[in-house]
Design goal:
Helix content: 25-40%
Signal peptide: 1-19
CATH architecture of the largest domain: Sandwich
Protein name: Complement C1q-like protein 3
Organism: Myripristis murdjan
Structural class: alpha+beta
Mean pLDDT: 82
Coiled coil: 49-76
Largest sheet: 6 strands, antiparallel
Subcellular location: Secreted
Low-confidence stretches: 1-23, 29-35
Radius of gyration: 40 Å
CATH class of the largest domain: Mainly Beta
Shape: rod-shaped
Order of helices and strands: HHHEEEEEEEEEEE
Distance between the termini: 89 Å
Number of strands: 11
Length: 210
């Protein structure tokens, strides 16, 4: 029991001594002021840490930019656009120009072609290729015009001089912005054949994305 009491007294003494030393150290630090808080070595270390922090921020920004560029590249690789549609019935001659509505969808990758309106709407900016083919005959002529945003781009047609069947077509490469529209007009007083044989078609696909 005496040994235990002695140990307790010794521990208390040591604790008081450590506390006193800590107070003395604190007083010495206050007296030294900024010189103690920022010795040459410490100041240099703080400066280097500040530089490293700035560099880390720059690297993080560059990493974010790289991630964004990679995501854009992946998005371009994923974007696939291609369609083909056929006219399901004979059309024309009518009194005015009409958009041909190719209702029989053969392919519509990307769902950019609307078979209720006959209009293709570019889902992404890029270079596209389009074709239009038709069959017609008898005494009526045929004139088909491919439009981009209310502007005629290419035309194909047949000026029939006999009652036999005739075929025609055309193709064009277009640079489109997202939302641009492409469609085919059938000119007034002309006609084309449609139906199960799918002679009259409208097709297009994305060549390269911007």
């Amino acid at each position: 029991f005496m040994n235990l009491a002695a140990c307790v007294v010794l521990l208390q003494y040591c604790g008081l001594t450590l506390a006193e030393n800590a107070l003395q150290t604190a007083d010495t630090g206050k007296a030294a002021g900024k010189e103690l808080l920022c010795s040459p070595d410490l100041c240099e270390l703080q400066r280097q840490l500040s530089i490293m922090k700035d560099n880390l921020g720059t690297l993080q920004s560059q990493l974010n930019d790289t991630k964004n560029q990679l995501e854009k590249l992946r998005s371009r690789e994923r974007t696939k656009v291609a369609f083909s549609a056929a006219l399901d019935r004979n059309t024309g001659p009518d009194a005015g120009d009409n958009i041909l509505v190719y209702r029989t969808v053969i392919t519509n990758i990307g769902n950019a072609y609307n078979n209720n309106t006959g209009i293709f709407t570019a889902p992404v900016a890029g270079v596209y290729f389009f074709t239009l083919f038709f069959r017609a005959g008898q005494e009526n002529t045929s004139t088909l015009m491919l439009f981009k945003n209310n502007m005629a781009v290419v035309t194909t047609g047949d000026y029939s001089v006999a009652n036999g069947a005739d075929d025609g077509g055309n193709g064009v490469t277009l640079q489109l912005q997202q939302g641009d529209q492409v469609y085919v007009f059938l000119a007034a007083a002309t006609h084309v054949w449609g139906g199960g044989n799918r002679y009259t078609t409208f097709s297009g696909f994305l060549l390269s994305q911007e």
